[in-house]
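We modelled the chain as a single entity of 427 amino acids. Its sequence is:
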Amino acid sequence: MAYELRTIHIRDIQFAQEEGVRDGVLFVNQERLRQLVAEDRRVQEVRFDLAKPGDSCRILPVKDVIEPRAKLEGEAFPGLFRETMEQVGTGVTYVLKGCAVVTTGPIVGFQEGLIDMSGPGAEYTIFSKLNNLVMHITKASQVDPHEHEEVVRLAGIKVAHYLGKLGLACGEYDCERYDWPPIGERFQQYPELPKVVYVCNCMAQGLLHDTYLYGRDCKAITPTLLSPLEYWDGAVVSGNCVSPGSKTTTYHHLNNAVITSLLARHGKDLNFMGVVLNPLMVTLKEKYRNIMLTTALVQSLSAEGAIISQEGFGNPTTDLMLTCQSLEQRGIKTVIITNEDAGVDGMSESLPDSVQEANAIVSTGNSNATILLPKMDRVLGVLPEVVKTTGGNVNSIQPDGTLLIEIHGIMGSHNLQGNTLLSAATI
């Protein structure tokens, strides 16, 4: 399947009457966006702000971050807005690189985090480097918390898709071409290179801990084999509010660091065979079933090596470890990516579960490390919500306006797909 990714580099974003992309600047008409969001009658109010790299600005609480994307033909983010859909990962896709849509508003759960656009906190998140269109969404009074999540999620993706379409008329872009042949052909490619599969664990536990594949809640599916290119078109979107530092936002799915790295090495030192999306369930019975099915899919691709990325923490670590054990016992060399909850001093037990076979672990950092964040000139959102955020507490807001929090509370600070600036070394 032939695929072309056209990247438009955005250096600035501005409000204007005439929307579009000109000379690397994204011009946005607020009123048109407001009308677009208001099509969902469950939205009571939406307003927009801009947050740019280097601004003395704090965004809180953040629900999701979405990179604008659109397809030349067909729909990016399939399954969300139309009854009919086509498989993505083929054709031509436009991406506006360097900007994002950030959704916020009255808090949905207790685990939405913050983004600082400058200062020490900005060094812990990739989102501080983006030109962000911030959406403040207020739901209608009759909308319950679970539906609230859906309202915010769909509003953010709808706006990101709309902005992505503005790029279709832009003639200045970088172009990358990819080919993803059928499985039979991939088996024959690069016979001298080891076959590697990526297992992407995703939250599917309900209570606002969800992921969506082609618009379907992943609680309703079993482990599924995907093309890596489907990720780049928004086939997988976030609907969860796990701890902000480890949350896989929709932006992370669209820019999955493991997929990007494996595609870059495909045909050079490995043969990338595909992605297994593994839903992280609640009960042990469901966990064992999905581990069995994930293992079978990886084996069916004749994999010699596997990489597993984590999502969430606590009981999802059991899925991570048991999947690693299952693959290793079948001779498939496995590397896992996870963060650590090692306490403020870094001396506590890092992981809630482990197996002997997990002997190759990449750490994305200690989420319990604390940081003092300076007061910002602007707060986009509701600052007091930090006391409910994972990593925050009732004493987080200091008398002088500074914030004392764990890096847990910073969006994407230790992203479990490795799209982070943190790691750890054994000493």
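As a brief sanity check on the tokenised model: The mean pLDDT is 92. Residues 2-409 form one domain.
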